Amino acid sequence: MAGRLIYLIGPSGSGKDSLLDAARPRLAERGCRIARRVITRSPEAVGEAAQGVSPTQFAVMEAEGAFALSWQANGLCYGIPKAIDEWLAAGEDVLVNGSRAHLAQTRERYPTLLVLLLTVDQTVLRQRLLARGRESLADIEERLARNTRFTEELIAANGAGLCVLDNSGPLEHTVERLLCCLG
């Protein structure tokens, strides 16, 4: 039996990387792999433990078919290694840190995927984004407004095919909710 693709999405600052780090041991106990993304940003950049490559390297990898999924967002390129198809074929579940904007294309390729939407209270999200110091206040407010629209549209369009995880409280609670969603 083929494994299941678990597609984690949520706004920047919602805590996806923290959730993945906290859930990693419990997911491993269940035989669920977490795919490591390839991103066109400096390897020294703070954030997830992704493989950082140059835009040229990314383009070469993409042309050579190295990715099962790839997309562009926020001026960066993201790729999920082709190895996930082997893991899924071997019956392993695979969790990927995906893109809300790329969900439709991902669903076309993996129609049985489980979508996890990580949300966070707007006040908490604003504080997290301000603390990171990557964007101006105007950019943050624009991101928050866009996030509200995106979340409402996703919930309306996906209904029961979506597991919503609120990450406004203790991370341990979000990990438990994640595990419940996986069954």
Automatic annotation (TrEMBL):
User: What family name appears in the similarity comment?
Assistant: Belongs to the ribose 1,5-bisphosphokinase family.
Q: Which PANTHER family match?
A: GUANYLATE KINASE-RELATED, RIBOSE 1,5-BISPHOSPHATE PHOSPHOKINASE PHNN
State the species of origin. Pseudomonas fluorescens
- Its Gene Ontology biological processes? 5-phosphoribose 1-diphosphate biosynthetic process; organic phosphonate metabolic process
Catalyzes what?
alpha-D-ribose 1,5-bisphosphate + ATP = 5-phospho-alpha-D-ribose 1-diphosphate + ADP
Where on the tree of life does the source sit, at the highest rank?
Bacteria
UniProt cross-references to Gene3D superfamilies, sorted A to Z: P-loop containing nucleotide triphosphate hydrolases (3.40.50.300)
Q: What gene codes for this chain?
A: phnN
Task: List the GO terms this entry assigns under cellular component, sorted alphabetically.
Answer: cytosol
User: What is the protein's given name?
Assistant: Ribose 1,5-bisphosphate phosphokinase PhnN
Entry keywords, A to Z: ATP-binding, Kinase, Nucleotide-binding, Transferase
